[in-house]
């Protein structure tokens, strides 16, 4: 699907994490977001960021790491 901002694309992915349900979480520096891809999915869902670069409550700035705990809480490390 190439690079990009659509839900079936990634734009400069920097880190990936797989949770116990086999969902894949990917942080993307190019889109300033974290995507969740459920097993077998053809597109992902935005679980953090995706509202442009920044330090607002719904924004990320070059996210580089993502971890999900056993309760499903998503932790993201970015440059904000």
From TrEMBL:
The keyword Repeat applies. Pfam families: NHL. Keywords: Repeat. Gene3D superfamilies: TolB, C-terminal domain. This is Uncharacterized protein.
């Amino acid at each position: 699907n190439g690079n990009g901002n659509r839900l079936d694309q990634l734009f400069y992915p920097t880190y990936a994490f797989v949770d116990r349900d086999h969902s894949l979480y990917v942080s993307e520096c190019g889109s300033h977001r974290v995507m969740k891809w459920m097993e077998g999915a053809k597109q992902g869902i935005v679980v953090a960021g995706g509202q442009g670069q920044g330090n607002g409550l719904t924004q990320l700035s070059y996210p580089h790491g993502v971890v999900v705990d056993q309760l499903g809480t998503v932790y993201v490390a970015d440059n904000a």
